Each structure stands twice: as structure tokens, then as C-alpha cells.
Fold this sequence. Notes:
Layout: E1 8-12, H1 18-25, E2 33-37, E3 58-64, H2 70-74, H3 76-92, E4 98-101, E5 105-108, E6 111-121, E7 127-134, H4 155-159, H5 165-186, H6 188-197, E8 205-209, E9 214-222, E10 228-232, E11 235-239, E12 243-246
Parallel strand pairs: 1-2
Antiparallel strand pairs: 2-3, 3-7, 4-5, 5-6, 6-7, 8-9, 8-12, 9-10, 10-11
Helix pairs in contact: 3-5, 3-6, 5-6
Bound molecules: biotin.
The site of biotin (BTN) has 20 residues, from helix 1, strand 3, strand 6 and strand 7.
Domain BPL/LPL catalytic: 6-184
EC number: 6.3.4.15
Enzyme class: ligase
Amino acid sequence: xxxxxxxxxxxxxxxxxxxxxxxxxxxxxxxxxxxxxxxxxxxxxxxxxxxxxxxxxxxxxxxxxxxxxxxxxxxxxxxxxxxxxxxxxxxxxxxxxxxxxxxxxxxxxxxxxxxxxxxxxxxxxxxxxxxxxxxxxxxxxxxxxxxxxxxxxxxxxxxxxxxxxxxxxxxxxxxxxxxxxxxxxxxxxxxxxxxxxxxxxxxxxxxxxxxxxxxxxxxxxxxxxxxxxxxxxxxxxxxxxxxxxxx
Length: 247
Ligand SMILES: O=C(O)CCCC[C@@H]1SC[C@@H]2NC(=O)N[C@@H]21
């Protein structure tokens, strides 16, 4: 697989967190760069949670310096989710069982295979870190993740396909570059449309839990700003950030 032009790459045998490394190196970079960590000792997940990261799983962060407004920069989580989906399809040879869970998880056979953590570095006009973790080899135990979280799954036990983190990075970087170019050229609409075609539970009843509220309704769509749109008994509700529960 060809490495995409214009993107740098560094591989670290061990690091606390590739997102933390992104913060340390962002100011020294001349262009976008992938940081692959073969072992992470303090990996972090969304909403301040820890990310359990057994060796052999994939952990990388893309550091870049987007020029758009913060709202648009945040839409990169959909760009990254699409790239992950495509890379997984590429390495396994099939998209069967793959789906995307709003805002930015990748599911395989209904279990959580991958997660994305977007962090801004240095405020507006600064860098963006897109941290991506994929359970290539092993999934954490249910006891290691939050209660009611989607059951974690891993690629090898689910599909029999063994992929190294380095090989997966090549597939992901290439897929990411394709979707990034689409986003920069055509905006969010084609990304939104591709994402919706791969969405888990679209048209079904789901629950969105925010820090303050819990909303249950039919998952209608994702709007032009990336917000989740639910049809609830009290009307249409848009959700900017939440944990999503099925069933
Ligand atoms: O909570 C989630 O679903 C997001 C998990 C993101 C984990 C990845 S692993 C690579 C990068 N470095 C980190 O410390 N976290 C992200």
C-alpha cells in the first residue's frame, strides 16, 4: 500500500499516549504526521476515561494543523471514522459486520472494535490530534470498560485476520488521505452521506445520555453540523455530544 504524499510518520516502541506525544511534538512539525505507538502506558479514551491497550493492538495519532473554524475542524472525527471503516474493509477483505456508531466508534458484529479521540492542541488555529485505537489482537474485558458500554471485540478473534499495527497504519493513512482530500475539496456533505450509509442503528430507537439529560428516540440522521438528530415523543431533538446506548 502506498504511503500518502505529504504525510509524515514516526513509530515509537513505547509511549505514554500517542495523543500526549502529539502535544509534545506538534510545534516542531512541518506538516501532518502519524505517530504510531507500539505500546502505550497511559492511553486515554473519550470523556477522560482510560483506554485499555494490550500490545499488538493499534494506537496512533494523526497530528495536523487544519485551517477551518473549530466547528468544522471537529467534523474530522467523521473523516477519521470513514477512514477506519475503509482500512478495516481493506485489510479483512470485507465490510460485513462493520458499522459506525455516532459520534466516532467503529463496531464489528455489534461490538466496539475501535475508538477515536479528537483533541485540539493550542486552541483555535492550533493543531488537531486525532487519536485512534483499534483492537487488532485482543479486546479488553467487560470489567475493564464502563458499565453498559458496548462489548469490546477484537479483529483477530472475530475474523481470523491478523494484521500488525504497522500494516494497519499504511491502510489507515492511505484511506484517511483520500477522505481528507474529499472533505477539504467538497466539504462535509459527501462525508456525512458516506457516514450515514455505514451508520449503526439508523432508523432505530436509541438512547443518548449527556451529562445533564437522557433522550430516547428514533435515530433520524446526523445533520450538517455533525449533530445527532433524534425523533422523540416531544419532537425532534439534536444532540451535540453524548454516549449512545442501544436497546
Ligand atoms: O474512548 C474512545 O473510544 C477513544 C479511544 C481512543 C484511543 C486512542 S489509542 C491512540 C490514541 N492515544 C491515546 O491515548 N488515545 C488514543
